[in-house]
UniProtKB/TrEMBL annotation:
Belongs to the peptidase M20A family. This is Carboxypeptidase S. The keyword Zinc applies. Pfam families: M20_dimer (PF07687), Peptidase_M20 (PF01546). PANTHER family: N-FATTY-ACYL-AMINO ACID SYNTHASE/HYDROLASE PM20D1, N-FATTY-ACYL-AMINO ACID SYNTHASE_HYDROLASE PM20D1.
Amino acid sequence: MVVKSLNHLPIPTSANISPRSVSTRRYVAGVVFGIFFSLQLGRYAFDLGKNLDITVEDVTSWTHNVDAAQFCPQVTALYPQSSLNAETWTEFGELLETEKFKTLAIERLSGLIQIPSESYDNMPPPGQDPRWETMGQVHDYLAVAFPLIHSTFSLAKVNTYGLLYEWTGSDASLKPYLLAAHQDVVPVNPDTLDTWIHPPYSGFYDAETGLIWGRGASDDKASLAGIMLTLETLIGKGWTPKRTVVLAFGFDEESSGIHGAKTLGKALEEIYGRDGLAFIVDEGGGFKDVYGTIFATPGVAEKGHADIKVEVTSPGGHSSIPPAHTTIGYLASIISELEQNPFPVELARGTVPHDTLLCYAAHGHDISPRLKHSIFKSTHCDAALRRVEDLYVSKDHWYSSLVGTTQAVDMIYGGVKANALPESAYAIVNHRINTVSSVNETAAHDTQTVSGIARSFNLTLKAFGQDIIPASAYSSSGPKGHIELSQAFNHELEPAPRTPTSGTGSEPWDFLSGTIKATYAAHRNLRGIDGSNIIVSPGMSTGNTDTKYYWNLTRHIFRYNHKNGAYGGEIATGVHTVNENIPLDHYLEMIRFFSTLILNADEVKSFE
């Protein structure tokens, strides 16, 4: 208003200007300018505080008083301490660097890759499909490649092809632990063979690039070979464990594990009992550079899973006299409606994705101050939590997929002939369920979304065994067709229990964190430091592992095999697609991780 009033002041002329009036006007102009500047500065400060939800006092306090590490506490590196284990660990590390051992490691992994142990969806049990027989080739190879293990460990075969090894420790009072991997791989599409740089089952090692090529090189035969070679080497050195070591290798992880890990889980529980294991380590997270800091993110939770079948039926007939919509047309509308109404993506406190962001904020060197402050404040402020969604989650497709329940229409079927109206059509919708949601909530969301389409087209609806829209809902003309929602394969899965990472009962997490730090430092010749050059944060993947059948065995499940994602080359790892590979150095570091883990586990007493 002050500025506007200046426009109405009389315009001065040389005739009516006096020295005094000039001085007065200069004084008035200065006051007005000062008020205007103060107002603008105040408005800027108000907007800044509104956008960041902070005050000047908050900023001052924050700058001087906040201990960022409290949001993501760290342990120091954990090295084997006893003279025997420390000496064994040092010798193992030196052996890793020799050309002889590197050649052996390449040969063992390459030989395993050369076996096309593919698993497919909806395969019948072993013995009913010859495609399972490649798993027998894996068994034969392991027996020849790792003879010391097969003469030292006990071995049970579960449901024909599941492998359950045990190396009995000398101290029966110590809980055993389990190392897991899977023998099977994703099938190679024959149409893609000419796009592979090296044949998918060649196991080719390129000395120039340092890459080992082939299906399973990264997922998950490097883990399997790494575990076996580590133990074979320790046996060869005369080392024996105090704590019992258990190995479980499934054979259909890539097709949900219903014949492999599911039966292994039951066998393990029969042998060791409920909560009978100290911890489990399976495939999963690794480490990478985020905001200028190396973060390792062991998976301590998993999303749920559900495959929903959406089927539409309606009268058939000749296509020359079609209705306004066929079953395929109805199905297309349903799919469109589902995709236009995705599940909300809402970050929640106490979840792994939120805890991971807290670690990024606490230790990321290059994270923006605004995002950092918002993440910290989101621990108690709902507005800040929503702001983190806007600043980070919504802008990162992978992270938003991690946070929310996802949906993907992956399979569709309908029609048998071009001139015949299809009497039925269906689609399979794959859901990965938010860790704070459930299978029932997911089913309810799909039911509610589809019900609107059903009513608009005069279709009846049955969802998961319940009549939602019966035929009586329509006039005497009756419904035009029927929609049914059901679980497609009857292996839906609730979100996994979370592994403790703080407070009482988190000792296995601290043990794993220290082991990761020691491995990372040793592989870079940094032994003796406290491990601060890698941060260990709770993590989670978007998929599931065989551990979904091992929940009863322990509260402490870690999906982590120390894969290096921080220093990747120009060639992608090709997991589940063409040109799968793993760098030799990354594979060797995984072996170092397993050796450090095994030796450390033999000394730690806090698991019991």
